[in-house]
Amino acid sequence: MGLPAPNAFSFEHLAPPINPDDVWRCLGPAGGAKEKLVDAVAWATAQASELACPQAVAVSLPVVGSGRGRVQFGGGPQIAGRLVSHLFDGAIGGVFTIATAGPGIERRVASLFAEGEALQAFVLDAAGSAMAMAVFADVAAGIGKELEVHSNRVGPCLKPGTDAWALEGQRAIFDVVPAASIGVRLMDSLLMNPQKTQSGVIPFGPNLRIINDPGASPCRTCSAPRCPMRVEAFQGPTLPGA
Ligand code: SF4
C-alpha cells in the first residue's frame, strides 16, 4: 500500500499531442477575428509540436502532519493555503511535480516579435501555453496511474499562482524537486524559466477524500459556490437514489 517515500518518478518519451482547439482555449475569445486566425492557429499548433522539448521531474514525499490551512511533509517542506489541508484530507503523501515544454517555443516567439511578426508570435505563444498544459497533464496522468497501482486514490493537482494556492507555493516545490536537471529555474518573481512550464503537488493516499474523479468525488454533494478545485458540478445535498 502507498509508495516508498521519498520516491522519484522518471519520465521518458514525453510527446503529448495538441490540437487547434487546445490553442484556441489559450488564445481566449477571438470574436470577429476568429476566421482570420484559423490558418495562424493551425500553423502555431504544428510549430509548437516541432519546437517543444518536453521534460519533467517529480518527487513524492510523505505527509507527516497537517493543521489549519497547512500540510507538513517528511524532510521539512510545508505547504500552506486556504484549501491545502482540505485537499490533503486523508493523504499519505504528495507528488511535487515540474513539467516543461522547454525553451524552444518561447525563443521562436521572441524572434518573431523581433522580426515584426507580432500576430504569429502572439498565436505561437498561446500554442506554447497549450503545449505546457498538455505536457503537465500527460505527466500528472502517468503519476496518477503509478500511484493507483500502489492502491492509492489520487487528488486534483494543486498549482501555485491559482485561486487555490498562492504563487508563493513555488518555493516549496522548487525546494523539493531538482528542477535544474530539466533546465528549469525559479526566478525572483516566482515565475519559472522557461515560461512554458507548469508545477504542482498531487495529493494521494488510499483514504484520500477529495479525488480527481468526476462521479466519485464529494464535490457533487458540496455546494461551495466558488471553489476553484471543484471536479464535478453540484448535484444537490444528497445524491439521487441515496
Ligand atoms: S467543491 Fe467542495 S468538496 Fe469539492 S474540492 Fe471544493 S470544497 Fe472540496
What's this entry about, in short?
With 242 residues, this protein is α+β, with helices and mostly antiparallel strands. It is built from 6 helices and 9 strands, in the order E-H-H-E-E-E-H-E-H-H-E-H-E-E-E. Iron/sulfur cluster binds next to loops.
- Sheet with the most strands, sense and barrel status: 7 strands, antiparallel
Number of domains: 2
Average pLDDT taken over every residue:
92
CATH C-level category of the largest domain: Alpha Beta
- Low-confidence segments, given as residue ranges, are none
Q: Count of DSSP E strands?
A: 9
Order of helices and strands: EHHEEEHEHHEHEEE
- Rg from C-alpha positions? 19 Å
Structural class per helix/strand content? alpha+beta
Distance between the termini: 30 Å
CATH fold-level label of the largest domain:
NADH Oxidase
State the CATH architecture of the largest domain: 3-Layer(aba) Sandwich
Shape: globular
Q: Features of this protein?
A:
alpha+beta; two-stranded antiparallel sheet; NADH Oxidase; 2 domains; 33% helix
Question: How would you describe the overall organization of this protein?
Answer:
This protein is α+β, with helices and mostly antiparallel strands and 242 residues long. It folds into 2 domains: 7-211, NADH Oxidase (3-Layer(aba) Sandwich); 213-242, no CATH class. 33% of the residues lie in helices and 19% in strands. It is built from 6 helices and 9 strands, in the order βααβββαβααβαβββ. Strands 1, 2, 3, 4, 5, 6 and 9 form a 7-stranded antiparallel sheet that branches. A two-stranded antiparallel sheet has the order 7-8. α1 (20-27) packs across α5 (118-149) and α4 (104-114) packs antiparallel against α5. It is globular. The model has no long low-confidence stretch (mean pLDDT 92). Iron/sulfur cluster (SF4) is lined by residues 86, 210, 218-219, 222, 224, 227, 229-230.
